[in-house]
Amino acid sequence: MKIKRKKEKNKIKRNLNEEVLNKDKKIIGVLSKRSINFGFLRPFSIEDEYSFSKMTDYEKKNISKYIKTNEEIYLNGDNLKNANNGDIVSIKNYKAPEGTNSAEAEVDEIIARNRKIVVGTLKKSQNFSFVIPDDKTFISDIFISKKNEMEAKDEDKVVVEILNFGNKKGNKTEGKVVKILGNKNDPDVLLKSILEDNEIDIEFPGKALAELNKLKEVLTEEEIKSEIENGRVDLRNIKDPNGDILRFYTIDGEDAKDLDDAIAIFKTNGMYKVYISIADVSHYVKENSSLDKEAFKRSNSMYLLDTVIPMLPKKISNGLCSLNMGEDKLTMTTEVLINSKGNFVKSYIYPSINNINKRLSYNLTEEILNNPDKKTEDLKHNILKLDLDYIDKKNIEYLKEICLILKEKRNRNGYINFDLPESRILLDKNKKAIDIYREPELFSNEIIEHLMLTANEVVAKLMMDKDIPSVYRIHENPDIEKVKEVNEALSSLGISINISKKKNEENVTEEYIKSTEYQRVLNELRLKLHIDDENIDEDMKEKAEVIFRMLQYLMLRSMKKARYSKKSEGHFGIGSKNYLHFTAPIRRYSDLFVHRALKKFVKDKGKTFKKTNDIGNYYDLAEIVAEKCSAKERKTLEIERKYTEIKKAEYMEDKIGEIYPGIIIKILKSGMFIELKNTVEGFVKYEDMKDYYMFLDGKALGEKYHLEYKVGDIVDIMVQNVNKEDAKVDFALISETRDINEKIKN
User: What whole-number distance in Å separates Cα of residue 275 and Cα of residue 334?
Assistant: First the structure.
């Protein structure tokens, strides 16, 4: 099988080579520029439609003359010419040596520019200015003439429109300032810059807002009556087998405003009946409406610390569809009967009407679980002054029980539970970072996680069994070569991820990883490193936790990224055969699509849906939505990660010269990364140290004093330098002097 694939790949490259040599058929693609020195020509994706929308008619017509690449092709150094990231370019001098995967080429011409708007820092001189782009892959600084400066000051962050593009032969890129964001050192300017640089709109377009204004603020009795007559189930006053009103709860963070899920539970005959109700966003956001088109364009909500760029306007996300306590809301409910082994005995999915009885928080739920006998008025996290009686506390205990049952079952099936700490960054009113700390791990988070997984699995199985068009969440088997690299790191502990073999459909043997392997290795690591041993020395425990964390990161990086697909191909990380996203339609477009397709099936068991062309259109649309949501998710995660790292660096700006204990978490050929207790990472360069160090066997070895530094070592550092814009923090290893003195004494 592998040989056959290789031959097919080489055949494609030879055909591509012939097309390149034919001057009438040039190959084009999108430049994915990784640095100023290299990049890849990649195939077109659905995300490039936005670039097409900005092109002139001439550019669009010009593109039709070319053949689009179907593979990634490496472009190096001068071969990039003066192309920028995202540009559509044609290539020449294509090379694909027989039997290799190293296709190379060089840019022939730039067919269409992607970036005509650039964000950067303005530097002013007497007669002109220039802008240093935030995008470090941009071809050059941008010349700004006096007349095109607007009123921008030196060190201002500005948005520049490109008037003409320069090249590497000395011609300058020229532009004009079209927006001034503010001084680069103002805390809130960083966020503005990131949003502008990625062309992310905070405001919604006029057509979408016009539709929004037509939506009523609350459900009327007439609407509720009509919905019930049309088959919607009223869950507001139904009773459990004990005669008690079924109580629905939301469990979120105290500051959450878009509450899209609620849960209810009771226990009967040794089994648990759970109700997972999700906001029925599709009732308000109609297909192909302006609101829908804008939601598709955004694809998901973006969470940038204390700032949310929502997929839908706040009137919908925080109002109409948010499951606020005491308000009648339209929902889609998954009702599941679960036995003591975690098996789903029966399940139902239907449109419903809810009224949430209590709004709980993660902290309050955790406090109730830890202090079941505490009086309501004594609960520290009972911010809303809720009256939590015996039934509420009993229900919360049931939620704990079902979570433990589901967790145990999923662990048996291969659910991977990485134990990686998350940090919390607090900002002041000016958006300046004022504190960083590790987010405490709460069991109450796991309750919601496992119930949402349950709803997602139940819906996915129904969609799969009934052949309903859907957008699935898939996670493919890990890359075998990367797994072997992880095994090298694990070998010193006598642990390894077992690689299994099986015959494929063509009777060819393939290697794969069983879904249970990763969790088995994680459990063995916990034992080997004494992670849960309370009797070991504090320093030893801290070192063990760092090693455990680093090995987890290695394992995580060996896995492929989860993505969306129109085909159900299983989810390796969850250990599930069929999985999708159903539980967050307020903030994920994939979920909104699933709701729409599901409702078409629920209406009359899919009879009308399957008799019309509508179902065929949905199959086609599922592929488009899957690709779009996958691409936007990757971009969103990249932006969220970048902003977080920038804010960590900002927090350290006024800490230069201060000394902290830290722990070595990574060692490279050029230096080592050290993490502080607040999760801030900094880099120590060997060139700034007193001895000459070599990188050998994963350690830093000193030549003169024979000092040795390795992952897990606790050291003292001094904050030496901070570059907020590049999110870089440099440390000086001050404990080296102490270590050298100790060596000399001995």
Answer: 6
